[in-house]
Write a structure and sequence with these properties.
By secondary structure, this protein is α+β, with helices and mostly antiparallel strands. The protein has helices at 20-26, 75-92, and strands at 34-39, 42-47, 65-67, 71-73. The protein has two domains: 1-48, Pemi-like Protein 1, Chain: D (Ribbon); 50-93, no CATH class. Strands 1-2 form a two-stranded antiparallel sheet.
């Protein structure tokens, strides 16, 4: 996702507010976790995913499956991917 840059001020405690449109797009809820890292002169924020969070639907369940490469899918997430793959394959034929 490419986004226009947003400017925010750092408060006395070193906090920066994430714009609501970014939180909405990334589905970051109040009290959600964000991983902070540094790369050269950049501060990188990444949404911290739950270990069992489906990468397609965002559903968190003990029924979700972990696949190679760290891919986590719920049953519905796997169905969605399968449907998309099947549709693409049919368009190519």
């Amino acid at each position: 996702m490419k986004s226009k840059g947003r400017v925010r001020k750092v408060d006395q405690l070193g906090r920066v507010a994430l714009p609501s449109e970014i939180r909405r797009v990334l589905n970051i809820k109040e009290k959600g976790s964000v991983k902070i890292s540094i790369n050269e002169d950049k501060i990188i924020l990444k949404k911290k995913r739950h270990l069992l969070e489906c990468m397609v639907t965002g559903e968190i369940s003990l029924q979700n499956r972990l696949y190679s490469g760290g891919i986590v899918l719920s049953t519905r997430g796997a169905e969605i991917l399968f449907e998309q793959f099947t549709n693409e394959k049919n368009r190519e034929a």
